[in-house]
Structure formats: structure tokens, C-alpha cells
Design brief:
265 residues, alpha+beta, 60s Ribosomal Protein L30, Chain: A, 4-stranded mixed sheet, 9 helices, elongated
Length: 265
């Protein structure tokens, strides 16, 4: 064999060794690459099933009030009190309407009660007495001065000059239910399903009379003295007349204490 052929065979062997070093596992490893990746992903997915939820997340998913919260929007309630041109003041029906409106504000209103007098000169002149009467009614309802705001109406209504009383109140917005997209079969964490408790929250939001009761509790009012007296009398066992008299003794059985020889009835 000549030296040239020997050198050529040596270079060919060197090239093959370089190619093999670039792919140490050979062509079979390239075919096993996607399969190995798939097995790795499945293995990690199996490990994910053993990961537990933290306590905060589990409590959030188990509480319908947090998972399906009730939202609130604002609505303006207004009362327009018509003013007579002669400035005679409010009628009895108007005073009753204002008293009821102020009582509703105390129960469901948020913010301040707006009292807007007519802005025109003619309306302001004829409304002076009516405005004073409105202020007296508001003051008599027990509202603190900081809860009432006075203003001027930008223009008269289509019925003429009027006093406008207005306040803002919250309105409950029910959550949307019916999400059954989750498979109810596998439930390793033993958590409620997605729609759990949503119907209760929705019914509560749609049936509540005063939406503010869902935000803050009502203030305590004066107790009824008559009811307290009745409960206390029942508790102590005293008569309603007072005086601390003892309860009457039980009646004696028939025949007890009768004269000797007397026949029992």
C-alpha cells in the first residue's frame, strides 16, 4: 500500500471520529429526543398532582362571599318640592313627604343630604319660607349639621321653582352564576365546585331591601320600655302591679284540712 492511500484512509477515519464525537449517542438518540421530552413533561405533571394548595388560597376558594362577591353601584334618590308663588310655605302633604324622605335617607343613604333651593331670583324669593321649613324638618329628624349640604339649583324645573332634596344610596349588583365549565369528577383538594354558593349570593343581592345593610350594620335605636318591662316581669315572676308580692300558694288537694267526719265531695 502506498503512502498516499495510507494517508487518505487515516483522514477518512479522523472525519468519522469527529462526526461520532458530535453525536455521541448516534442517530438513535435523535429519534428518542421527542419521546424523552414527552416523558419528562408527563413526569412533571404527575409531580404537580402532589402539590397542595396553601391555606389562604383554599380558604378563598371555599368562601362563596369572596369567590362570588356582591358588587355595589350608586343610585341617586331625589324629591322635588313644588313652591307656590304666594310664598305660603309647605302644605301638610309636602311636609309628610319630606319627613319620609329624610327617614329613608337615614336608613339607606350614603354621604350627605343635598338641599338645593331654586336658583332663580323669583324662585328664591317665594321659596324662602319653604326652605326654612325644610331646614326645620331636617333638624328635627336628628341629622347632624355636617350630614346636610345646602346648594342652589342651576335652573327651575319644568313645573316651576322647586326645592330639590337628593342623596346617594348603594344598590346591590348580583353576581352572574351558571359556570359549570369545571369537571366535578377529579377533586383531590376536596374543594367546592366553581358555582358553589353563587345562587345564594345572587338571591341575597336581589332580595335585600336596603343594600347598605350588606356594607355596614344599622345603628342601634332606642329600646322599647314596654317590652323591657314585660320581659323583666316574666323573668322575676312578679305581677305587673309591682309591689314585690309573692306568688300565690298552690291550692290544697281535696279533703285535706277538712273537719273530722266530713265527707269528701
Amino acid at each position: 500500500m502506498s503512502a498516499r492511500s495510507t494517508m487518505s484512509s487515516t483522514m477518512t477515519i479522523a472525519r468519522r471520529s469527529k462526526v461520532r464525537s458530535a453525536h455521541p449517542f448516534g442517530p438513535k438518540s435523535r429519534r428518542l429526543g421527542p419521546a424523552a421530552i414527552a416523558l419528562l413533561v408527563l413526569g412533571l405533571g404527575g409531580c404537580r398532582d402532589h402539590w397542595g394548595l396553601d391555606n389562604q388560597t383554599a380558604a378563598l376558594l371555599s368562601d362563596p362571599e369572596k369567590r362570588h362577591p356582591i358588587a355595589f353601584s350608586s343610585r341617586t334618590e331625589a324629591l322635588y318640592v313644588e313652591i307656590v308663588p304666594d310664598g305660603g310655605g309647605l302644605s301638610n302633604n309636602q311636609q309628610t313627604d319630606i319627613i319620609r324622605f329624610v327617614d329613608r335617607f337615614k336608613v339607606e343613604g350614603t354621604g350627605r343630604l343635598m338641599v338645593a333651593a331654586p336658583g332663580s331670583a323669583r324662585g328664591a324669593l317665594s321659596a324662602s319660607r319653604s326652605v326654612r321649613q325644610v331646614e326645620d324638618i331636617v333638624r328635627g329628624a336628628g341629622l347632624p349639621p355636617e350630614s346636610v349640604a345646602n346648594a342652589r339649583a342651576p335652573a327651575d324645573t319644568r313645573y316651576g321653582p322647586a326645592i330639590r332634596l337628593a342623596y346617594e344610596r348603594p344598590v346591590a349588583v348580583a353576581p352572574q352564576c351558571g359556570d359549570w365549565s369545571e369537571d366535578l369528577g377529579p377533586n383531590r383538594e376536596r374543594l367546592p365546585h366553581t358555582n358553589f354558593g353563587c345562587a345564594t349570593q345572587r338571591n341575597l343581592a336581589m332580595s335585600v331591601v336596603t343594600s347598605r345593610d350588606l356594607q355596614v350594620p344599622q345603628e342601634d335605636g332606642d329600646r322599647a320600655g314596654e317590652r323591657r318591662t314585660a320581659v323583666w316581669t316574666k323573668f322575676t315572676g312578679l305581677s305587673s302591679g309591682g309591689g314585690g308580692s309573692a306568688a300565690p300558694s298552690p291550692a290544697a288537694p281535696p279533703g285535706v284540712g277538712a273537719a273530722p267526719g266530713a265527707a269528701a265531695p
